[in-house]
Every structure is written in structure tokens, then in C-alpha cells.
Amino acid sequence: MQTDQNKQQGKSQLPAHHYSELTQQQIGMTMAPTPTSSAPGGRMKRLSVSSKLLQRWIMYCVAAFCIILSLAVILGGVAVLAIFLAYRPRGPRLDIPTATLNAAYLDSPGPSLNADLTFLANLSNPNRRIDLKFSYLQIDLYFQSTLIATQAVPPFAERRGESVLRHVDMLSSEVALPPDAANVWQNGTAPGGDGVSLRLMGKFRTRMVIGGWLRYTYWARVHCDLMVGPPPAGALLGRQC
pLDDT (tens digit, 9 = 90+) per residue, 39-66? Predict the structure, then answer.
């Protein structure tokens, strides 16, 4: 009993300012703010995580797109190669079986060329499994490097292995020639001359119909070199197409 009384007396003998310090510490501990998720540091952390997830998602999308595009290009190339090996497409062929230089003379001063050339064009489809359709056909006539006539041919179609003949008349009217070319023309078309060399160049807008379902349109260009004698007979002396 005496010991308990002494303890109580010891407690009661603590200074008053000691009690006030203990009370302030307890109040401070009670009133101290607790960290919450709405602190600036927490918001920054969430924004950083969201930004990283967005960047990763964009990288995955770009990688997937590149893979799909690469696969599409590879598959397209394989398909084109398979079609080429299966059908072996070839362009149209032009041949000139007959040609006649009906008239030709030079006007001066100039000199200016006037000429009339007629020929038979044989346009053939060498493909065995492909049809051809010609929507636009133009044939140009050159003497040396000078264009002296041009003529359009009506559109037509050819089935596989088919040939079409077209009669074409090329007219030149007052076409200016360089002096050297005029001399060559004058000597070649004079009576007893050796003839003149002409070049025919064709430009055809061609559509290939492969297997009845695949269509491919392109420009086909062909040419033929002709050697014709002096007019009015002006027979075809030679050709190379």
C-alpha cells in the first residue's frame, strides 16, 4: 500500500509544463494530415503511368500495321508472280504486210513535205489465255526524226490468238523538213531513186482480260521500220517490226 501511494505521489509531483507538452504531442499526432491519393505527387505518378500505357499502345498499333502492310505486299507479289507464270501475258504485235507511197513532193520555200502513204496493219494477240481490248489506238509516221503524219484507229477487241487487219491512210500536209532531211527525201523519191526509210510508231491503250475476271490496263508501244520505193507505185521494199 505504501508503495502504491508513493507511485501516485510521484505521478502527482510531475511538473505542469510536462503535462502540457504531452498534450500538445498527442494533439499534433491526432491532427497530422494523412497522405491521400489527391496529393500532387500521386497525380503525377498516375499521369506518367497513363502516358507510358498510351505510348506502348501506339507502338503496338504501328507495329501491327507495318506487319499487315508487309504481308499484303508479299502476298500481292506472290499473286502477281503466280499469274505471270500461269498465263505468261504478252503485248500486242504489229505487222505491216503491205504499204504504198502513193504521192510525195516538196514545196518551196521551206521546204514543206506533202505525202500520202497507205498500209495494211495486222495487229495480233499472241496470248493463248488472255483477251485484249484496245480503247485507244494512235499511229505516228516519222521520217528520220520528224513527225510527218498521225492517224487514229477505231477501238476494237481481240480474243486469244486472234488477228485484226486495219487499212490506214497517212497524209502529210505542209510538214516542214530540215534541209538535210529534205535532200534525202528528194533523192529517194525521185524517179529511179532508192526509196525512203519511214518509221511507224503505235501507241495503244490496251486492257488485258485474264481468266475472265482479272483486268489490267496499260499503254502498249510498238514500231515498224519501212522502206518504200518512189511514188506513184511506192511499193514496200522491206520492213522490220
Answer: 555 666 666 667 777 788 888 899 999 9
